[in-house]
Specification:
globular; about 190 residues; mainly alpha; single chain
Length: about 190
């Protein structure tokens, strides 16, 4: 989805189509970004059941750190090849990298001892129920709605800031395009 969103964005730019841009960059690319973000994080925490928050934090830091690298690379590609070619190159590279990475992404193998210990801990079906709600039940609580809203606002504000940070740094502070791209990467890292 993410690679297809990038390639579709190149098509939308070459055709000058705003609806296609929204569809490919926003919808298709957004689905790919969300799935590509949560899948490795949810797998990673299974490797560190006693340090789930720390493992999640490190994975999310890696996601932000990527902006430090991608920002200047995208700036150079756009300057050298143009915006449409930038999306073609990145779409192809991302499809290869994400496809290759997916080949080794798998949950940890449970040992016989771990399975036996889990069986002793959970016991009956009512004991399992006491450990937490199902996904459907959780989605119908006010807490889920509140958390969803917090994430929505937080991410929207973050994306809004990142979208204007480079032009703002160039116009207000007088940075050149490469410096502004690096600054956006640093914001991503610190995020």
């Amino acid at each position: 989805f993410f690679g297809a969103g990038m390639l579709g964005t190149a098509l939308a730019l070459s055709l000058g189509s705003l609806p296609l841009l929204y569809f490919f960059y926003g919808v298709i690319g957004g689905i790919g970004l969300g799935v590509g973000y949560i899948t490795p994080v949810s797998t990673l925490v299974k490797y560190f059941p006693n340090h789930r928050g720390f493992a999640t934090g490190l994975a999310i830091m890696g996601f932000g750190f990527a902006a430090l690298i991608a920002g200047p690379v995208m700036q150079q590609l756009t300057a050298r090849f143009g915006l449409t070619q930038n999306f073609l190159i990145l779409g192809t590279v991302y499809m290869v990298l994400i496809g290759a990475s997916s080949l080794y992404l798998k949950p940890p193998v449970k040992t016989v001892a771990q399975v036996a210990a889990a069986s002793r801990r959970t016991g009956t079906a009512s004991d399992v129920k006491a450990l937490g709600a199902t996904a459907s039940e959780a989605m119908h609580t006010w807490q889920f709605g509140a958390l969803w809203w917090i994430f929505f606002v937080n991410i929207t504000c973050g994306i809004g800031l990142l979208a204007v940070a480079s032009p703002m740094a160039q116009e207000v502070v007088g940075m050149d395009a490469a410096q502004a791209a690096s600054m956006v990467g640093i914001i991503g890292l610190l995020n």
